[in-house]
Amino acid sequence: MRYLILGSGPAGIAAAKGxxxxxxxxxxxxxxxxxxxxxxxxxxxxxxxxxxxxSGLANPQGKDLAERKIRVLWGKxxxxxxxxxxxxxxxDGSEETYNxxxxxxxxxxILPAALMGAPGSFLFLNSLGDALRVRERAMxxxxxxxxxxxxxxxxxxxxxRKIGNQVVWINPGLPRFGNxxxxxxxxxxxxxxxxxxxxxxEGTEIADVIDVDGRIxxxxxxxxxxxRCSLIVVATERLPGIGFLEGSGVKxxxxxxxxxxxxxxxxxxxxxxxxxxxxxxxxxxxRINFGWRSAIKQGQLAGENMAGGGKVxxxxxxxxxxLLYGASLPERxxx
Length: 335
Known about the structure:
Elements: E1 2-6, H1 10-22, E2 27-31, H2 44-49, E3 70-73, E4 78-82, E5 87-90, E6 95-97, E7 100-103, E8 107-109, E9 122-124, H3 128-138, E10 143-147, H4 150-162, E11 166-171, H5 183-195, E12 199-202, E13 206-211, E14 217-221, E15 226-229, E16 231-234, E17 238-240, E18 256-258, E19 269-271, E20 276-280, E21 285-287, H6 292-306, H7 329-333
Parallel strand pairs: 1-2, 1-7, 2-3, 7-19, 9-16, 10-11, 10-16, 11-12, 18-20
Antiparallel strand pairs: 4-5, 5-6, 8-17, 13-14, 14-15, 20-21
């Protein structure tokens, strides 16, 4: 039996381990577009702020993959799925076959339309490479604009202020996906950010970006505001990275549509984590449960169910990435 898992994040690693637990003799392979060893994505702002080194971001989930005889293929971005022939094609021209497939490709950040015409003005904060680029450029910057709602925007603003940047946080409002921070908690956190010198512009969007001289940019907002800066950090919500499924026959909405068993409409294909739109048997609705804890839980069940586990996924309210590592969000911002 051959299990192929797409993605080396928390869901992908948990799926690989889940399949291995129930099928001791199977071939288990993770294919990931990452080139770096598994890392803790929620802690990327700590790398930007200097509170952690790269070694401190290592994901403990990934330490024993070789011991468990789980093989990892690096630099593999899925390009197309042939579900009829149990085959995945990758952007480097290679392909992999499987008996069971788990899609755990996570998400990709949403880019506001106004930034599409200003590619040199912004950096994402989504990957390890992104975090290193943001830190290097921020160290040469004076004023940085952070764009993005909720937890991600808050953490980016906190990290950049900690290294001495003048920070303007443009918060467009409540996240459209996932689990928003409760109103009272967000209010406390925003007050703490302001007390540390972060300027906030709430309930507005970036309307345009004007390149002043190739190094300085004027950011115009829909509310009539204007900010001159040398860097824009995009810390937005992430949409499922499932474009490669087009034409495959695997049903998708915002994410890959899966049952309470994490299975898709194709009997030997499962999905888990930030790319999976899971049917909630209690609420009787499908939704994407963004978050690290949720991804691990889903990945484990998907991996076990590929190997015949037959377990149902039930979401818990604590499965939210804002409660992951170390202190709670208000405590982190208040440091």
